[in-house]
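Task card 7
Instruction: Convert sequence to structure tokens.
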Amino acid sequence: MKNTFFFILAFLLFSLNSYSQKLNGTNIGSTPNFDYGTNKCSPTANTAANVFDGDFNTYLAGCERNNVWAGLDLGEPHVITEIAYCPRETQENRLILGVFEGANSPDFGDAIPIFMITERPDFNKLTRQSIQNSRAFRYVRYVGPNDTRGNIAEVEFYGHKATGNDTKLFQVTNIPSIIIHTTNAQDIKRKDEYVKGIISVISEDGTKFYTDSLKIRGRGNASWLFPKKPYRLKLFHKTNLLGLPARQRNWTLINNYGDKTLMRNLLAFDLSKRFEMPYTPAGVPVDVFLNGEYKGNYQLCDQVEVNPNRVPVEKMDSSTSTLPYLSGGYFIEIDAYADKEDSWFTSKQKYIPVTVKYPKDDEITYTQFEYIRNHFNEMEASVFSYNYTHPTLGFRKYLDTESFLRHFLVGEISGNTDTYWSVFMYKFQNLTNDPAKDKFYFSPVWDFDLAYENDRRTNPINEQSDWLYKTKGSNVRGGKEWANRIFTDPGINNDLKRIYKDYRDRNIISESSLLSVVDSLANEIYASQKLNFTRWPILSSIVHQNFQALGSYDAEVETIRTYIKDRIKWVDNKLGYVPNGLKDSSSPDIKYWSNSDIFHITGFNFNSIIEIYDISGRSLVINRHVKNEFSIQLDKGIYLIKIKDNNNKMESLIKYVME
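Output:
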């Protein structure tokens, strides 16, 4: 009986503790900045107390346009189960993308979102929203969106006292959320100065959480000038962020501002993997919050650097300091912006600008710098020498042609304007006089926001008669001459055709396989892109090098789809590609291919019988006697083609994919 009493008492206490009720606390908020001469703010308008007074006619409207917030110090941690909010009259739209956060640090440095407003609320009534967030917070607040001054009339928080846990957190869309709070909410204004802060990463539908201290700064060249800024992250601890291959501290957030599909870099990375490039940067789409503000859809990506699971060269070894240039690998970039870097040079013959990425600026010695500069000059000299095609004395002594050609194909298939504006290359250490270790390898591919028909200077790509880099592409000084010289070697052109044919025949590079990636990414980021273009309403505007503004995300994605369909046909024609099917060894002379929707076949015996079946087994042509060539219009699909002689004996069996 006594045990039953204590059980009932414990149950009642638990129920009372977990009962959700309207929460009260000490009002807190962004610091007022009354400037009557400029902003003419009312002291009563710019106070957090107005948000919690129960009066729809009073409101928070800060003098500052950004970082305006109002919240409560609840005294001790509570799990929030519901919020309610009401906008200032006539300012309903200004609450869209407003963020509710919870924290356990009074400066909100460890804050994470618990809800974001995505639809226009009504005035003069509370819009209620249940909260699915298991963490307990002492501090809660509403943060107004960018450039809105807050303009919120009422906020209510509901919940109960609890210790809480991280089993279920708020994730704004289906893709991961990255939340960053800088010390004292400092803005990121420079590329050469880090700001300290805390990063939180919420993924897997809110069931996985990671947090760490970090430093953050700006990054990029042209991309840094956009309103939506790109960032460089340096975590305190090494980690495989969001399960990406490299366990490292350094990461990037790519803004993709001028790419209205938000996927061009990821498409190019997929293409790089298909061509089995030595290293392809890892990247995933994410939603980013900075100091309580939703910043939009970004791409979390590797920082391109020498490290395991990134640029795969050996690091410098101080134990061989007598020969420092032999003690590790080198990572360089043919770089149009090289003169903005600390460690760079121009080549001796064509004055190609080159940045030395590794060894790092503050680590490289004079001897190391001179070694890599001289080695690059030797490579350049071999390209322009009289015996440049010689297999051991020409440029093949210094260039890994397989990675060069794969790098070239990624740039040309994607239609990358900047393929020879920026080229990453690396070289392994050579302690054993291995000729392969003295070669430059072309990797990784990078920067494709202008690719896939997104540049007014190159549009329309598929109407050009020659490769993009030769016609309208951007080339660093000396870059086009250098590439042109290499492609005058017949052997290089044969190798290019061989590589392309191999991946086409295996259906690794095909219209259907590439379009499936487009469709998959569009589906993955569809919810996020809606929020991104609410934050950055540019779908109907020309930005960066856009040649069109179609007004919708779907239309922008369709541009890529159309481009890929046409580009595969263009490259097929340029390289004289004729696809291989599966045929028996007794018919070596049979050749078959397709142009658009017409299937062609030649090389069979006179008066043979052709039977064509689709994959379901439905016969399309039965006992059709043909002379020595045959063409037929076919829909997209997989077909079996049987070729028989007059005695009905099988001559050849072919499986063919119409794309």
